[in-house]
């Protein structure tokens, strides 16, 4: 049965900007969000796994608890608390049209903390995403609104800070607002590359130029080619490698490609998958900027892409290539090399058969095993759909091909009793940086098939998830004092943890969930617990409805 036959399709009209003039930003409106030197652990639009970094990461001297200040007058417009991602996060909307964002916080301060906890108790959920009225939580420039921390998916204590356009919610490089950091170091050019989009480059599909910045001997290539560069930047006061602010590629002194990290929308962040060499990243987590534009790439940080950055080589013609890296302070590094065109081999055209998928339209494919539905613009370029079944595994494409959107996958279950279909879950195996990874997706049984929304290619399988999440006490005893926390290690091996609830004497209390550390704790100092003996219960539920439970008694002194 075609599960997607009656799917309602809504097509969005793309709206392109009529002006490409550089916007001017106020450089004196905002103070620093911290009162310590502004050294960075990460800069704006730095390359991260499947996304661009959306702000700057300010170092907090390898510790938590630094005062976090409102950078200007405004009001708390959003409070988001999550066990992953930004963790404890505040948004302050300012009258000048911008919103500042403060993430990975340890805790909020004053009325903000009180408001957030009231919302958690009202919703009986640790995770909240609330939007206070503009008059509820006003702040003044320099007010302490939180303490810095390491919550969410943070890899160490720091403050993640953003400035967004309030109306469009685009995130903007904080350097453009004067929140810079000292930088006297030139960008690092660690390699240049030539990609054969058809034809070849010295007999290869990707030719690597490493070891020096300037190559005098021409590289022979044919057909359509594109350029690439491995590039990083370093700022004063930090040893970590950051992203590059501006990249330009010239061919015979003509600008053919330019990339500038000024702003982007969150709908664009996965375009990192086609700006960079995705296969290279999935193989060894190495980043290469691809200096050409795939058909489905709509990233606004690409400022110039003549002929989409693609160079159509002519036999016998020589091409002088120059790649220039520039940081925000104007420090610059350049690399050069030559390409000499040669006659391309014949039969370079690709015959598009019935299994061909097109990036700019919806695509549907099915057989007796599976059905797949891809929304428009799921890919960055057209591709040939490949599938095979080996045993109980379903090989769809390969894990070196990127996807921009979720697609619908339906698998006909085999050898699963009807009574257990509600426990079936679709999983995918793929290679990521030299190790094999398995991800699980929320799965429903519909019209005789298991259906999930997925955003990977790889090797799929169906598993039964009948195992409850595990709960292990990390407490040394059953007696606690005012500033103590009741702590537990929690894990789920398949579909993942969906819900978690804690109760003291039958009353719901806030279970703080630190996903990266598999930790749930209850902060007794904040729960208005009376002295004496109490009953405690923790329930943890996975996405397939399996429930883990822990009950005990404790004494609060």
What does this structure look like?
By secondary structure, the protein is mostly beta strands. Helices cover 4% and strands 43% of the residues. A hairpin with a 4-residue loop joins β43 (512-514) and β44 (519-523). It is globular.
Helix content, binned percent: under 10%
Shape: globular
Radius of gyration using CA atoms only: 27 Å
Instruction: Output the structural class.
Output: mainly beta
Residue share in β-strands? 35-45%
Q: Could you name the ranges where pLDDT drops below 50 across 5 or more consecutive residues?
A: 5-21
User: What's the N-to-C terminus distance?
Assistant: 63 Å
Write the layout of secondary structure elements.
Blueprint: E1 40-42, E2 47-48, E3 51-52, E4 56-59, E5 67-69, E6 74-81, E7 88-93, E8 98-108, H1 110-123, E9 128-130, E10 138-139, E11 144-148, E12 158-165, E13 171-172, E14 188-196, E15 206-209, E16 219-221, E17 224-232, E18 246-251, E19 254-260, E20 263-264, H2 272-275, H3 278-284, E21 289-290, E22 302-305, E23 311-312, E24 318-326, E25 332-341, E26 356-357, E27 363-366, E28 370-374, E29 383-384, E30 387-390, E31 393-396, E32 407-411, E33 424-432, E34 435-441, E35 443-446, E36 449-454, E37 458-464, E38 470-473, E39 479-480, E40 485-491, E41 497-504, E42 507-509, E43 512-514, E44 519-523, E45 532-542, E46 547-556
Parallel strand pairs: 16-25, 39-46
Antiparallel strand pairs: 1-4, 2-3, 4-12, 5-11, 6-7, 6-9, 6-10, 7-8, 8-11, 8-12, 12-13, 13-20, 14-15, 14-17, 17-21, 17-23, 18-19, 18-24, 19-22, 24-25, 26-29, 27-28, 28-32, 30-31, 31-37, 32-36, 33-34, 33-37, 35-36, 38-40, 40-44, 41-42, 41-45, 43-44, 45-46
